[in-house]
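seq as requested:
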Amino acid sequence: QVQLVESGGGLVQPGGSLRLSCAASGSIVSIYAMNWYRQAPGKQRKLVAAINSGGSTTYADSVKGRFIISRDNAKNTVTLQLNSLKPEDTAVYYCYAPIRTMSGLTNYWGQGTQVTVSS
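struct tokens:
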């Protein structure tokens, strides 16, 4: 059984920073790209940032220059550093990764962590 568990959300003032973490656990053979998505109330879930196993990164235009994604392949973790936060960054943030186990390849989502940017 594989799980993705996020942590690090919370309430922060505009201009502040937060650090989100996601840890994958279970009988993992390999993890492909590790991703962060977010979903604001009444809106579709959207990709925020992604990082492949080689360390190449992709960011949504709305977060470029403010957010930084990183991963530790040895620990099966991915981190999203959120800087210069704006009220429009308020959303539930989800970790997502395609993970290969002995049973095959499956897409996994974390449970989500709330980020609220407000004064």
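The chain has no helices and twelve strands.
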